[in-house]
Amino acid sequence: CVVSDSGTVQEECCILGGAGAVLSVPADAGRLDVWLFGEEQSRIVVSTPEANYPALLGLAKAAGVPLLELGRIGGERLRLGEAVDVSVSELAKVWRGAIAGYLRGAQ
């Protein structure tokens, strides 16, 4: 499972982990652009094998930490609700070339 509230983090996890994910956008996410790209303090992404999810949930509950399950890891695409459906290879290509592409365009 993946637990988070920021699309940017999920994208980087897919790229670095080499696996896609199917995630839902929470109903109370507010503006989609803010949910996808905003960064807030004290929020983290947790990925765990499904068999360990009950233990993770128990630890979070015991510590008084809210936990929101967003989806599942697997496949070759990142899907974020209806907003995003892109291959991990395309994400990686853009992510790895972003700075060089920006600098080429600035010249």
Kindly report how far apart the N and C termini lie: 43 Å
Shape: globular
Number of E-state strands: 6
Arithmetic mean pLDDT: 81
Number of DSSP helices? 4
Order of helices and strands: EHEHEHEEEH
Q: Helix fraction? A: 40-55%
Summarize the biggest pleated sheet.
6 strands, mixed
Contiguous runs where pLDDT drops below 50 for at least 5 residues: 1-6
Strand percent estimate: 15-25%
Strand order of the largest sheet: 3-1-4-2-5-6
Structural class of the secondary elements?
alpha+beta
CA radius of gyration: 15 Å
Main traits of this protein?
107 residues, alpha+beta, six-stranded mixed sheet, 4 helices, 44% helix, globular
How would you characterize the overall build of this protein?
- The protein has about 110 residues and is α+β, with helices and mostly antiparallel strands.
- About 45% of the residues lie in helices and about 20% in strands.
- It contains four helices and six strands; from the N terminus they run βαβαβαβββα.
- It has helices spanning about 5-15, 30-35, 55-65, 90-105; strands at about 1-5, 20-25, 45, 70-75, 75-80, 85.
- It has a six-stranded mixed β-sheet with strand order 3-1-4-2-5-6.
- Helix 1 (about 5-15) packs across helix 4 (about 90-105).
- The longest helix has 19 residues, at about 90-105.
- It is globular, with a radius of gyration of 15 Å.
